[in-house]
Amino acid sequence: MVTEQHLIIEPIIGENEKSAKDRLRNFPWWFLALIFIAIGVFFVISSNEEYNAAFIFIKIGLAITLKTTLIAYAIAIVFGLLAGLGRISKNIFFNNLARLYVELIRGIPILVLIFFIALVGVPSLVNGLNSIGEWLSSAGISPLSKPFLAITNQDISMNARAIIALAVTYGAYLAEIFRAGIQSIGKGQMEAARSLGMSYGQAMRYIILPQAIRNVLPALGNDFVAMVKDSSLVSVLAVRDITQVARLYAGSTFRFREAYVTLAVMYLTMTVMLSLIVQVVERRLRSND
Predict the structure, then answer these.
(1) Which of 76, 160, 224, 284 is close enough to 170 for a disulfide, judged by CB 3.0 to 4.6 Å?
(2) 133 within domain boundaries
(3) Domain annotation covers residue 6
(4) Does 58 fall in a domain?
(5) pTM across the whole model
(6) Do residues 262 and 42 lie in contact, with contact meaning Cβ atoms separated by under 8 Å?
(7) How many angstroms separate the CA atoms of 72 and 78, rounded?
(8) Does 2 reside within a domain?
């Protein structure tokens, strides 16, 4: 005989079983496996003299990797924000200039851009500045010409060129993120701000941009993680990041396995930790909505 109590209990049991299965299905088993792999690899590196020697040598380049990434990303945010504002501008010149920048940079592989900016763009810029100095000197304005004439290609290190290349490249990608973030804010907010007497710039600065940046923080974090990985490409300019240092170690000792396993683990550790931070920020933003 089925009673009313049975009818109430059975759905509850079914819901509990379903929620337990959902929790098991959604549990990050991949992350648990990654932790076990990381523990095993760190144990091997710490207990094996050859891996330990490789790690001690390669970690010398860690500061350059982090410095290059942080400075390049900070500059890329500025480029991206300006280009993103240009993409939504009603001014034909700024709109098309921003679009040209975005389409041009995004259509060229990062490695090619690094070579072009470092070996073609920067020398051309130096030559242009020298030409300005020569023109000022011929015009009789010698005091102003001296700084332009004093600049040489050797004054701009490969580290600086690598930072410029990464910043210019990622600025184009961040431009689309900022554009999407700004356009995600309802037009009514801009209209309300303008009706209160704010100028377009004030409304954008105090009303639109704070909300837009908050919305795109997870995407910005993901691009920062991507830049950490792409910073390995600057090793082609002989910048002594961890990739270049690992190549030097492998070439001098012929311990390629130890060098590149250690290098891969270092990149994986950085990217996983940063990805977890991005996920925490994303969850917190969602909970505050």
Answers:
(1) 76
(2) yes
(3) no
(4) yes
(5) 0.85
(6) no
(7) 10
(8) no
CB 166 within 8 A of CB 157: no
Q: Do the beta carbons of residue 178 and residue 84 sit within 8 Å?
A: yes
CATH at 222: 1.10.3720.10
Token pair for 134? 């020569």
